[in-house]
Each structure stands twice: as structure tokens, then as C-alpha cells.
Amino acid sequence: MVMTVGLVMSPELYGVNYGDRFIAPCLSHPFGTDFMGRDMLWRTVKGLSNSIVIGLAASAVSSVIALSLGILSASGGKRADRIINWCVDCCMGIPHLVLLILISYMMGRGGLGVAVAVAVTHWPELTRVVRGEVLQVRTAQYVKAAYKMGHSPLKVAKDHIIPHVLPVYLVGLVLLFPHAIMHEAALTFLGFGFSAGVPAIGGILSESMEYIVTGKWWLCLFPGLMLLIAVMLFDMIGEKLNQLFNPGSGNQ
């Protein structure tokens, strides 16, 4: 709902109004206003909407990369497995934030650069999970029986392997999403994400740092809480899906 409201809302709702600078939270401005008189409620909604859009796009692309490489690693022979595992180890050996900054810097500031940076850095963990699931199901008796009955690899994959991997893939996709949102916010906070003119939670938090010491606590409190709630919500959804598909994983 936040994403939809943010996409269709008028820019006038969070426009500049110097006559309303630094208004504390009140009935007319529940989240207060900033140093340019912009309504913080609508700026936060718009910023969170932008983060969700980037998170969805990046998570979808990253999960497809992970699914493809995981299946290829498990089914493509030893050489493909070694190459993909080497790439996974290399990516996991470098801190996420370093790769995010480098890729975003090369792509240029903006939503596209952030989306690409997040998408190409979040696939290694899910790739390993998918690879393990494919290796497990390939040794199952019903899969071996399907091959002995003359079924083609494509039919075996469609009827047995993909249905087995799909729940893990869906859980991984949902759990990627909060990480994508947090890393988008971190990039923008550090100045490598959205430009200053685009409402984004990271940018809002970055701007608020200058005014915290002067008592303008609402500039960072409400955007930070909204970001935290969104991340925790999707993390909880992912955990519930994991427990639904894997009942024995609740205490892990």
C-alpha cells in the first residue's frame, strides 16, 4: 500500500514551503516538517515507496540469477560447479557495502545504479541454497526412477526438481527483500544512491544528521522507524514462509 500511495501521490504534498520550516509533529504535520518546510510524513511515504520499488526489482533480478546459477552449478558438471562456486566465494569474501559502492559509483547516481548494485551483490547465498536443494533432489529415488523410465532431463526438471526448489526460492526471494531495502538506504545515506532531489529514506536520514544536535529529533526518528518496520515486516514474512515450507526449521 505504501508503494502504491508513493507512486501516485502528487509532489505538491511534500513540496517546499519555507513558511513551515522545522514544525514539530502536530495534527497538521504528524511527522513534522524539515529545514525546507517539506512535510515529513509524505516525504517518508515517498522515500519508502522508492526504496520498496528498488528492493522489489533488485530482489527479483538477484533471485533469478541465484536460481539459474544454483541449478547450473548442481546440474552442469564439475567444471561449471567449480567456476560458479569460485564466483560465489569471491563475492562473499568482499563486504557487501564495498561492492555496492563500487558498482553504484560506476553506474552513476540514481535508481538504476542502486538497483543494479543491489541485484548483482545479493545472489551468492541463495545460489548456494538452491545448489544444495538441487543436489539433494537429484539423488532421490523417484528422480532416478524417472530417468530410468526414459524421461528427458527437461521433463524431470519440470516435474520434480523445480517443484522441490520453488519453496526455497520463494523464501529466499522474500528474505532478500529487507536486505535490498537496507542496502539501498545505506547507499543513499552515504551519497552513492538517489540524488538529493529524490525523496529516499537514506537521503532523508543523511540530511537529518545536521539538525539532530539542535533538537530536531523528528527528522530522523520517524523515517528511521518506518524503514525499520518495513524491514522487520518482510523479514517476519520470510521466516513464516520458511516455517510453512519447512516445519522443522522453526528452532534453527
Please give a structural write-up.
Keywords: Cell membrane, Membrane, Transmembrane, Transmembrane helix, Transport. This is ABC transporter permease. This protein has 252 residues and is an all-alpha fold. It has a single domain (59-245), classed as MetI-like fold (Orthogonal Bundle). Helices cover 70% and strands 0% of the residues. The protein contains ten helices and no strands. The chain starts with a helix and ends in a 7-residue tail after the last helix.
Task: Give me a quick take on this structure.
With 252 residues, this protein is mostly helical. It has 10 helices and no strands. It is elongated.
How many distinct beta strands? 0
Number of helices: 10
Structural class: mainly alpha
Give the helix proportion (percent range). over 70%
CATH class: Mainly Alpha
CATH homologous superfamily? MetI-like
H-E order? HHHHHHHHHH
CATH architecture: Orthogonal Bundle
Global shape: elongated
Here the CATH topology equals MetI-like fold
Count of domain modules: 1
What is the first-to-last residue Cα distance?
A: 32 Å
Mean pLDDT: 84
How much of the sequence is in beta strands? under 5%
**How large is the radius of gyration?**
22 Å
Low-confidence stretches: none
Largest sheet: none
Protein name: ABC transporter permease
Subcellular location: Cell membrane
Keywords: Cell membrane, Membrane, Transmembrane, Transmembrane helix, Transport
InterPro entries: BP-dependent_transpt_permease, MetI-like, MetI-like_sf
